[in-house]
Amino acid sequence: MSARSTAVRQPVWADVRRRVPGAPADLTLHVLPLPEFSEWAFSAAGCLTGAEAARACAIEETRARELFVVSRVALRHVLAHRLGCRAHEVPLDHDPRSGAPRAIHGRAGAVTAAPGPGTAPSPELGRVHPVRFSVSRTAGVVALVTAQRAVGVDVERLQSAVEADVLLDVLHPADRARLTRLRGRRRAAAVTRTWTRVEALVKGWETGLSRDPAGIHVGPAARACYGHDWTVSDVRTTARENARLAVAWRTDPGPVG
């Protein structure tokens, strides 16, 4: 992959923040339209590691490669801003077993991935709240969420009727019964919406789809509690995005006594 040589002005990140209804103050969601971010992302691709650049080059389909580069470059810059370091210094890492992204500890000059098994954090880093993140990308859109708690995000382009029927078969029986009563585009939109909520939850739980979606009942509410520990919420999308978006986060514990 060859980064473009002409420098392009970095985006104003506040302009692409998206409100998440009911979310805690430490949670931030950015929604990036691919056409508006592609040129900048390729011009700033020098922040990628050698492994990330090689992964991008290995993606043969042009739009898929573009989505990967935009999502990874933007993620590095968003996290760098939050952590107080440079984009190339952000230590992105994933659990080798689950594939889930590891939390990052740090501030300017002291940034590190959350320690793996058998290692202990330094006293300095131990005083810093870890930053967790989740990324999702679909045709034309990238969604990035960061928080000081476990979090998950999913964005999906609006499914066709055939695609929606395939997804319908793997959903929880109660959700399936509710959605089956709908017809045409309403069903496709509602199934897509339900699926994004399931995906956001399993990303936050760090299980991925190793956890059976048929056991996850999300219901019809725009924002809902899942058990005592998790909240999942729809996020508004535009007609141009032609997608559905959901964010899940670990809920603050209630007051005791």
Automatic annotation (TrEMBL):
This is 4'-phosphopantetheinyl transferase superfamily protein. GO terms for molecular function: holo-[acyl-carrier-protein] synthase activity; magnesium ion binding. Gene3D superfamilies: 4'-phosphopantetheinyl transferase domain (3.90.470.20). InterPro entries: 4-PPantetheinyl_Trfase_dom, 4-PPantetheinyl_Trfase_dom_sf. It comes from Kocuria tytonis. Residues 150-220 form the 4'-phosphopantetheinyl transferase domain. Signal peptide: none annotated. Keywords: Transferase.
